[in-house]
Every structure is written in structure tokens, then in C-alpha cells.
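Why do we care about 3D structure at all? Because function follows from shape, and shape follows, mostly, from sequence. That is the central idea of this module. The next example makes it concrete: a single protein chain, its amino acid sequence, and then its structure expressed as C-alpha cells.
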Amino acid sequence: MRKTRTWVIKLGYVLVIVFIFSAFTSSIYYAMNLQKTHQDLAEKNLNMILLTSDLKGKITSQQYHLANFYERNDQNSLFFIEKNNRNITGILQELFSFDLTQDEYHWLNVINRSYESSKINIISLTAHQSGDEATLRRAYATAINTMSVTINFSDQLTGILHSDYENKRVKNDQKFTQSIAITSIGALVALVSSFYFFGFFSQRVDDLELQGTKDGLTGIYNKKTITAILERMIERNKVNQKGLSVALLDVDHFKSVNDAYGHLEGDLILRELALIIQQSIRSNDFCGRFGGEEFLILLSDINPKEAWLACERIRKAIASTDFEIEENRIRISATIGLAFAKTYDKVDPLLLRADRLLYTGKKRGRNRTES
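And the structure:
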């Protein structure tokens, strides 16, 4: 009887250990699998954002060259129009190659049909087919307007991408919670080890960094996403060598604004600043909140002089804006450090140069672009 009891106790210990080990292993599996899923989602989201940005840039460029051809009979523009036709077709094919949701597939089809409609008018114009001036002008206006509609549809697709990404991220969070529930059963059985068990997986949740791409306050890209975009743009610039500039913008004396009016009012100013920056950059540029009152602006396919003028446009827009706080109107300024990417550049050295130039601009009196 005693031997039987000892055997049952040992068997119980073995079963408890097996159960704890199974729960532990399954939780690790869930955690690692969800982490990979999150990384895959973020990768797809980032790739599609960059592609839709390229699409808008190519179509905008095509509008410009079509206007040149039609108004000035600029034959060089024919080359750019045909080149963009091939590039846009390639971008659309790459977008269709992704594993798409029903909404994403719908908007891509709408973009494709819209672009094909404008293409018919472009072919008619560039081929100089017979027709009076009024007919050609209608075809020109239709092509330009249809391309504008295609650009707007591309923005709609970007919104759908963010929405799909956030929904899938939430589902990932729920699955991870379920995996924690599995571990809690093992923790109830194993009293002492449960504290270590929960502590380990709490840390695991933090390490996964299951977060979105947008900054919660301003609605623009957060630091993690804008840095990832910069890394991609640096690699792209090494290939096409069309120019890449990085601007680090910091609000002057922002602490005094927070001290005088409070952090809630300061947050409203940061939201409005983000909107001003977004409205001041091109469709193929990017901006994100880098921390506190600092913003990172990425300017692609641009030379140093054009980049400096773009930063000055942003700085002047901020300086000329009246910000409403507690029925008062105040004005603020910003200092910008502008660094130009080199072919061998990496993210950290490029950001460091921009930061040092920002510091130099602060020392030289603020409210300026230092390059």
C-alpha cells in the first residue's frame, strides 16, 4: 500500500512537470509565432505604403510631362511618359502579387481601371490622332483629371492598408492573451514557479512590441516606422542615386509653451504642426514624430538645393501660423537640421549629422534651416 502511494505521488509529480513543460512550450511557441506574424504584417504594410507612394509620385510626374507635351510639344516628355507607363504597370503588378484582403483587392482594381482610362486619352494625345482642338483639349483634361482621381484612390488604399494592419494586430494581441491564459493553468498547478512563469511572459509581451505604425498624438508615423522607412529609402538611393535628404525639425522654446499654457495645449500645437508638415511635403516624401517636439522629414528624389528650399517652406509655414491657445493667438518657430545622404550612408550616421546640424542651428539663433 505504501509502495503504491509512493508510486502515485511520483506519477503525480511527473504529470505536473509534464503539464507545466507543455504549457511553457506551447506559450513560447505562441509567442514566437505571433512575433513572426507581427513582423510579417509590418513588413507587408511598409512595402505596400512605399509602393503606393511610388505610384502617386509616378502619376504626378506623368501629369507634369503630359502638360509639357500638350502645351509646348516637348518631345522629351514622350520618353518620360512611356517610361512612367512601364513603371506604373510594374508597381501595380507588384501590388497585386501581395496576399490581399477583399477591400485591398477592390481598391487596387479601382486604381488600375482608373489609370487605364487615363492611359487611353494619353495615347490619343501623344499619337496626335486627328481631331479638332476642342476634342484634343477635352481628352487632355480628361486624362489629367483621371490621373488626379487615381492619386486620390491611392490615398484611399493607404488608409485601407493601415486599417487592415491595425485589425490584424488587434487579433494578434487577442491570440497572445489566449496563450497567456494557457500558461496561467500551469501556474495554478505549480504555485512557486508560477511567479517566475508570469514574470517571464510579461517581459515577453513587452519584447514583442505589438504596436501600430502611427503616433498616437499626431496621427503621423511613429519613430519606429519612420526609421524603418528611412532605412529602405537609403537602400533605394544607393541603387537609383536620385538624392535623399533627411530633415530633423525641433520646435524652438517649446518648454516655455508647455510651462505657460500646460501640456494639453502643447499637444494641440504638436497636432497642428504635424498637419502643417504633411501639407508642405510632396506625395512621395514622408514625415514622422521622432520624439517630444521633434519631427523627422524624409525627402526623396531631390537635390540639396531643392531640399533646403523645401525645409525653408516648412519653416516659414510654421512661423507664419497663428496657433490658438486659450482664446489667445501665439506664434512659434522651428529649427531644422538638414543632412544629405551619401551612397555609403547608414541610418544612424545620417541621423547623427542631421542632429548635429540642428544643434548648430539652435546655437546660431534658431528659426533657421542649417545644412
